[in-house]
């Protein structure tokens, strides 16, 4: 019931593969296999890269859908004006339960993502590349990929590259949360809106985009705009990565050209012939009814015209045998628990909305429904981040899509169907039991110096707790790779110098023949450019 999706579910493709090319040959494309499958990659001048992104109408694939060429030019303009080098960030954090397409790409085709990120870094003259992930499997894969290219966070390197791990939470994938986490803070929105292109990582102009977006850029750079636009719709060319789960024979990730009928995608995954509804865009998305789902094709424009949302590519049908409001309640309770706890609409409003939906389902009648609508309205446009608005959207869409079921609950006390729990949610305690790669380091407390100030427990609650006697416990703690930055900060801030980090070299992935040059795959190049310029070629 509400079982989580595997990190790497089955992958299928409609038509010819682009992003998933080579998946039929190996489980993971290491650098040599990546080059055999995709071929060499030519570096590009900045303006030429921006023109390519504009020609293929490339937009962010994380859900926001912002045009990539505008983001690229904005970062370049800010870097030129300030005379600084920007930062490139690959947002591979995927904390939403029904989404796995970025996790699949990071696990199986990490070098395609790095290709796109390195193209952008080369064009912008960036000297820092950061890949943000949420899961152990993606952390392992991307660290191995960086090692295969000879990339590291070593001081003095032409390009410093590192991996940052964030919690597997809904709010941690938002751009402002990612930037805050990279700086060593909590992976939560800061409550103020700043453009990453102006002030991102370390206050520098930052190009931050979704993992699939960079992979799409790498494909287009290899095959050219004309061939890329030969696939899919004219106004939304190329392919998209979809995660299909819910009432299906088995969850899967599907690469499909835009314009393919949604009903064909649902059929591939073994969905019911006439689903009661299809949730599109994930848990901040919108429900389509059965008729709309039958008419829709895979595109942002088509989905929007029929009441849906393509978003991050999550597609979740439910069958006629389950109570849709009951299914929505499970998601609503999870959304309420995902609050960052930083503002009233999120911390108080979402639990109240989930409770209101429960009252409606359990026979609260018209009064319960009106109370629920009032709570949803009070949550909208008042939060410190997008989580309250996205959750309110889910509530409103649920009430609008299942009017017959809603009427049965309000007027008759129920619809007579049980809730089968087909929408995926994380397993219980997933946040507390996240595994990570050991760094080889250990934090140790010198009890002869410790006076119980508790700063270590404040900075590293994952490793230290304050005991009843007012001192932190345990005395020693192994440090996972993704907490190294916080561990070093805790050591520096200990007022009594009682905390130390005993560091051992982390285990290195086995690499047969690491390349001598940490850069784009061979195939040409060009001088590095500080920012976008007219360029040639």
Protein architecture, described:
- With 537 residues, the protein is of the alpha/beta class.
- The protein folds into 4 domains: 17-228, Rossmann fold, CATH 3.40.50; 239-318, Ubiquitin-like (UB roll), CATH 3.10.20.600; 324-412, de novo design (two linked rop proteins); 438-502, Alpha-Beta Plaits (2-Layer Sandwich).
- Helices cover 37% and strands 14% of the residues.
- The protein is built from 19 helices and 15 strands.
- The chain has a 6-stranded mixed beta sheet with strand order 1-7-6-10-8-9, sandwiched between helices. Strands 4-3-2-5 form a 4-stranded parallel beta sheet, with helices on both faces. A 3-stranded antiparallel beta sheet has the order 14-11-15, covered by helices on one side.
- Strand 8 and strand 9 form a beta hairpin.
- Helix 4 runs parallel beside helix 6.
Main features:
single chain; 537 residues; alpha/beta; Rossmann fold; Ubiquitin-like (UB roll); de novo design (two linked rop proteins); six-stranded mixed sheet; 15 strands; globular
Short account of what is shown:
This protein is an alpha/beta fold.
What's the arrangement of secondary structure elements?
Layout: E1 10-13, H1 31-38, H2 46-55, H3 68-82, E2 87-92, H4 101-108, H5 110-124, E3 128-133, H6 136-148, E4 160-165, H7 175-182, E5 206-210, H8 211-223, H9 225-228, E6 239-244, E7 252-257, H10 262-269, E8 277-280, E9 286-289, H11 290-295, H12 300-305, E10 314-318, H13 324-337, H14 344-361, H15 365-379, H16 387-401, H17 403-412, E11 438-445, H18 455-459, E12 465-466, E13 472-473, E14 476-480, H19 484-493, E15 499-502
Parallel strand pairs: 1-7, 2-3, 2-5, 3-4, 6-10
Antiparallel strand pairs: 6-7, 8-9, 8-10, 11-14, 11-15, 12-13
Helix pairs in contact: 2-3, 4-5, 4-6, 5-8, 13-14, 13-16, 14-15, 14-16, 15-16, 15-17
């Amino acid at each position: 019931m509400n079982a989580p999706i595997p990190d790497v579910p089955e992958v299928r493709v409609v038509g010819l593969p682009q992003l998933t090319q080579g998946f039929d040959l190996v489980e993971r494309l290491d650098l040599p296999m990546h080059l055999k499958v995709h071929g060499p990659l030519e570096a590009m001048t900045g303006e030429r890269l921006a023109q390519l992104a504009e020609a293929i109408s490339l937009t962010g694939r994380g859900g926001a859908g912002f045009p990539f060429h505008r983001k690229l030019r904005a970062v370049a303009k800010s870097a030129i004006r300030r005379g600084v080098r920007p930062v490139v960030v690959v947002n591979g954090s995927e904390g939403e339960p029904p989404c796995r397409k970025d996790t699949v790409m990071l696990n199986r085709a990490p070098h395609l993502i790095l290709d796109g990120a390195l193209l952008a870094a080369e064009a912008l003259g960036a000297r820092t590349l950061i890949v943000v992930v949420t899961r152990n499997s993606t952390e392992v894969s991307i660290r191995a990929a960086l090692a295969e290219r000879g990339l590291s966070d070593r001081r003095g390197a032409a390009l410093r590259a590192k991996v940052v791990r964030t919690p597997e939470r809904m709010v941690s994938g938002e751009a402002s949360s990612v930037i805050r986490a990279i700086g060593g803070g909590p992976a939560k929105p800061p409550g103020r809106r700043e453009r990453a292109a102006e002030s991102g990582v370390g206050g520098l102009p930052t190009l931050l985009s979704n993992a699939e977006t960079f992979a799409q850029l790498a494909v287009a750079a290899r095959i050219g705009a004309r061939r890329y636009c030969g696939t899919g719709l004219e106004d939304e060319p190329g392919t998209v990565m979809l995660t299909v789960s819910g009432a299906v024979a088995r969850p899967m990730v599907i690469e499909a050209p835009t314009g393919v009928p949604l009903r064909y995608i649902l059929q591939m995954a073994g969905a019911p012939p006439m689903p009661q509804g299809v949730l599109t865009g994930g848990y901040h998305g919108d429900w389509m009814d059965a008729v709309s789902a039958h008419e829709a094709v895979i595109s942002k424009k088509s989905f929007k015209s029929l009441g849906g949302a393509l978003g991050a590519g999550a597609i979740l049908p439910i069958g006629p045998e389950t109570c849709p409001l009951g299914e929505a309640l499970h998601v609503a309770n999870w959304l309420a628990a995902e609050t960052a706890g930083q503002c009233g609409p999120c911390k108080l409003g979402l639990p109240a909305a989930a409770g209101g939906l429960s009252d409606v389902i359990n026979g609260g009648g018209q009064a319960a429904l009106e109370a629920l609508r009032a709570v949803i309205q009070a949550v909208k446009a008042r939060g410190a981040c997008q989580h309250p608005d996205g959750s309110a959207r889910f509530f409103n869409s649920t009430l609008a899509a299942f009017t017959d079921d809603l009427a049965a609950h309000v007027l008759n006390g129920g619809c007579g169907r049980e809730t089968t729990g087909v929408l995926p949610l994380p397993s219980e305690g997933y946040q507390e039991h996240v595994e990570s790669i050991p760094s080889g380091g250990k934090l140790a407390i010198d009890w002869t110096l410790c006076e119980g100030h508790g700063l270590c427990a404040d900075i590293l609650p994952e490793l230290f707790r304050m005991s009843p006697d007012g001192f932190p416990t345990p005395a020693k703690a192994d440090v996972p790779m993704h907490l190294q930055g916080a561990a070093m900060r805790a050591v520096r801030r200990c007022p009594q110098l009682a905390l130390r980090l005993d560091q051992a070299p982390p285990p290195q992935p086995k690499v047969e023949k690491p390349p001598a040059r940490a850069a784009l795959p061979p195939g040409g190049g060009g001088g590095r450019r500080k920012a976008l310029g007219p360029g040639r070629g």
